[in-house]
Amino acid sequence: MLTATVFLPLVSAVIIVLWIRNPRAVRLIAGATFVADFALSILVFTRYDRSVGGFHLLEQYKWLPGTDVTFQYLLGVDGLSSPLVLLTGLLGLSAFFVSWEIRHRVREYFVWLLVLQTSVMGVFVALDFVLFFILWELELVPMFFLISIWGSGRKEYSAMKFLIFTLLGSAFMLVAILALFFSTGTFDMRQVLTSDLRTLVIPLQVVFAFFFVAFAVKLPIWPLHTWLPDAHTDAPTAVSVMLAGVLLKMGGYGLIRINAAMFPDVAHGAAFFIAVLAVINVLYGAMVTLRQTDLKRLIAYSSISHMGYVLLGISSVGAPGPALSTVGLTGASLQMFTHGTITGLLFVMVGLVYQKAHSRHIPDLGGLASRMPFIATVFVVAGLASLGLPGLSGFVAEVTVLLGTFPVWGVLTALATFGIVLTAGYILLTLRGVLYGPSRERWAHLRDATLVEGVAPVLLAAAIIVIGVYPAVLTQVLRVGASEILALPH
Amino acid sequence: MTVQDLWLLSPELSLAFLAGLLFVLDLVLERKGVLAVIALVGLLLPLAFSVLLWGEVAGWLSVLAPLPDEEPGRAIPGLFGTLVVDRFALFFKFLFLIVVGLVILASTDYVAKLRQLQGEYYVLILVSTLGMLLLAAATELLSLYVALELTALPLAALAAFLRDSRSTEAGIKFLLLSGLSSAVLLYGMALTFGLTGSTELKEVAAALRGALGGDIPFGSYTLLAGATLMVAGFGFKIASVPFQMWVPDVYEGAPTPITAFLSVASKAAGFAVILRVFYAAFGSVDLDWGALFAVLSIASMTLGNLVAIAQRNIKRMLAYSTIAHAGYLMVGVAAVSSRTPDGTTFGPEALLFYLAAYAATNLAAFFAVIAFVNQTSSEMIDSFAGMGRRSPWLAALLAFSLVSLTGIPPTAGFMGKLFLFSAAVKSELAWLAVVGVLNSVVSAYYYLRVIRVMYFQPPPTEERGVSSVPLRVALGSAALGVAFLGLAPWPVLYLAHRAALALSP
To answer: Which of A135, A191, A248, B66 is the most buried (most CB within 10 A)?
Structure first.
């Protein structure tokens, strides 16, 4: 089933490339694929048996054993990755609906979107290092083309910047993977998770640092974050949704799955440093966000701030015992999921506003709520979720992270909590600036979202509200994953 | 020369016969296009002989089913011990024959445009290949030298074939520098001969084993000088820094099929001879020539990548990319077994795989360039604007091969780099691997710039481009090779593994 979930989009992409020319047929096939993928991701999530734990739904095929370098096709989910699979399916479907209005080179657009879906889905379920790396790199090509062709603003510059930054990070990751291979003799993540890493070709801390750099570029962690505002702002809306919603989580997933799980001692030692970086992310990200006047850029910077909470949760591995770290890691993974839905929704709404008003400049906008009530409502829901209003999913995640980290890094967590105040500041200012206030002549002609445009917002908003009201649906699974990671013998 | 020698030399002899036949037919035939067909069909003969010889060396049918145990395979010496037929030599024979076949296929447009010397083109390229076949098999310094000259001289003539000022300049530069490097090489060989008393690589190794020691690198200044001079001589062929000055000008001036041939086959031949000489002759000496190659590797990678960024002419850009790739390939040479914890090295095997992957990728790139230059009559990268719209398949294949050169999955280039860098990490040269991957990132910029120009800039005209069938067949085959090696590297890796095992003394 995992193979189908991962590779169904790729198969559709190949079919479209070879045989389908009509744009409507392209949309139909792509849509069917994304719906099917979403359904499969729900199946994967529900099939994961949280009472048993461990890696499930394994699919393993050994290719012909070569010589020294033997890697295999190995997929599997555990408590950490199955919610992320669900997130990818959900956001992929939302991205499809957001892409409904694309008119320019439709065929290629959906081909690249499908390839992107495959590679991101695959990253979360790959349990063999080489396969993980291949899928990690594979997302670069569709992203590069999607941003450069269908984006706006300085799209080619942003695409190239994104590509070079990510490539740089993964360059370090490749060396680290090879070093791990030559000390443990295997590319199988499950075996590396349980093996003794003391004998290494290069020092353990250096391998940890290399992995950390790769994931730091993706998350992103200050100061490697500078690609994000450009890429998010200049990408087409659907790509921004995927980028903020899913691609950033690849970094967080890597940090937990590899850095925290496979190098617990080094992670324990580096935890303070990680916490400091997390607080910088939160506060610096929030402060810069306050200054933004471009709506999309504002949401992009707010992403940096929110991903800081993920990092803060990860830093709780600095705790003396696993009890606190479990809460922190659970919070981090939950924040990944909720941030994906919340920021994804924010980008969807921004995209709708831009499509109708053709402006992202906040001082120019205003009073849109009276013209577009549906969009305004969902926008407000998304904004309130982002600032952590109880009852919506953002609150649950942030509270869990803070609860898990406060006993470990008290002062730093207090500083990060201040970030919530700043978030409230920029969110409310933005909502007022864009949606409320006196209505302007210029926007008198705007119309509300159509039926098709309304699907993605409703989907994501539903997810946000459901998780906000009943988070146990996710937290039970995530907690199994987190506690397993922390219980690994070393 | 015994009958057995005739059998061992059958690929070379059949190739020489083919060249001679083409030479004679050129005098007789009016329609020169037939020559290309005869050349291609005739190449099947040496290829068949090589396959049979592989079966001979490995036990019959070993090319179809793997041997149960790992043993280096027979190495059959021939011609009084001056050459050997083993899997290593045969791997390269396969490579060279396939490469020259594809190049001939892609040259048909060019040759049709030459007003005279059409037959000579094919003869020269086949004679050069003959030299390469001998080069891969030679185990004695003088035969090595002769084979090297046989490889280089026809290429010098071929580089000047277009008879314009750039082409002539390319030919002269190549001839002079090739002659200079051959002289240096010969001097190095003379020093080695003087020290060890024999030119046969096996006897050189025996003389060196245990006879030298001490603190002097290579155990003796004479040997140090000899080996360094040989590195200089070989370094020219593989386009390594600091012997790379000829590359951009020769690549730019020569006819593009010849550039493609130079960049792939000549380089592979150079590496074949480096591996043979350093592993077979100097393998036993307690020295660190691996470190020397590591230094050369870093210099080549860095210089090649950095200068390529500034290039506007596609052929020059690919020339600098060749220099950078020589750097990556030398990582495989630097990963010697004496550095690894368990005494086995993955270096030569990774190198051989990457040579095959690089051959496929570079040929695809150059063939696409031929097609584009035919359409736009300009070699500047900016003239490729909008090719994504005008010739979608050509542009896609060029983009694919550029992605492979960068080392992004799922291409042959990625697999090759994966293997090479893992060999480096295993030989405790992790820092070399780090430099290598960082250089790959830098190279992404100029490779992707071409993709950007093709796809994101508006075309000057909307007319669809056309290209000839043989060129498209050649390009398609090369691109298929890139995809095949990227998705299923194991067959070729297996062949490379058997070939590398044959290398150990």
So the answer is: A248
Strand stretches in A62-199, DSSP E: 73-77
Between the CA of residue A417 and those of A151, A398, A412, B63, what are the distances in Å?
A: 35, 9, 9, 67
Report yes or no: B418 at the A interface, CB cutoff 8 Å.
yes
Q: Which amino acid appears at position B102 of this protein?
A: L
**Per the omega criterion (within 30 degrees of 0), is the bond before B242 cis?**
yes
Indicate the DSSP class of residue A243: I
B451 → chain A, closest CA residue: A145
Answer yes or no: do B403 and A174 touch at CB < 8 A.
Answer: no
Residue pLDDT, tens place only, B371-413: 888 888 888 888 888 888 888 888 889 999 999 999 888 889 9
Report whether B248 contacts B217 (CB < 8 A): no
Q: Is A488 left (phi over 0), alpha (psi -120 to 50) or beta?
A: beta
* Contact between A133 and B490 using a beta-carbon 8 Å cutoff: no
For residue A406, which phi and psi values (nearest 5 degrees)? Answer: -60, -45
Can you tell me the distance from the alpha carbon of A176 to that of A226, in angstroms, rounded to the nearest whole number? 24
A-chain CB neighbours of B497 within 8 Å are: 66-67
A35 touches chain B (CB under 8 A): no
- For the record, the structure tokens of B486 come out as 């990227």
| Spatial distance between the Cα atoms of A347 and A333, rounded to a whole number of angstroms | 21
The predicted pLDDT at position A185 comes to: 76
- ipTM for the whole complex: 0.74
In this predicted structure, the answer to whether residue B72 has a pLDDT above a threshold of 70 is no
Q: What is the pLDDT of residues A70-102, one digit of tens each?
A: 677 888 888 888 899 999 999 999 999 988 888
Q: From CA B501, how far away is CA A112, in angstroms rounded?
A: 42
- With CA atoms as reference, report the closest residue to B228 among B289, B269, B317: B289
What is chain B's mean pLDDT, rounded?
85
pLDDT at B65: 38
Please check whether residue B163 is in contact with residue B110, taking contact to mean a CB–CB distance below 8 angstroms: no
Tens digits of residue pLDDT in A267-307: 888 889 999 999 999 999 999 999 888 999 999 999 999 99
Across B344-359, average pLDDT? 89
- Integer angstrom CA distances of residue A352 from A34, A295, A329, A358, A450: 21, 12, 34, 9, 10
- Cα–Cα nearest to B484, from B98, B73, B136, B133: B98
Q: What is the β-pairing status of strands A56-61 and A73-77?
A: antiparallel
Q: Are B219 and B286 in contact (CB under 8 A)?
A: yes
Classify A58 as helix, strand or coil.
Answer: strand
Closest partner residue to B403 among A141, A175, A202, by Cβ? Answer: A141
Q: Does residue A368 contact residue A446 with C-beta atoms inside 8 Å?
A: yes
Q: Is the peptide bond before A223 cis (omega within 30 degrees of 0)?
A: yes
CB A395 within 8 A of CB A335: no
Could you report the per-residue pLDDT of A39-73, keeping only the tens digit for each?
999 988 888 776 666 777 777 776 655 545 567 78
Model confidence at B337, pLDDT cuts 50, 70, 90, reads low
Partners of residue A56 on adjacent β-strands: A77
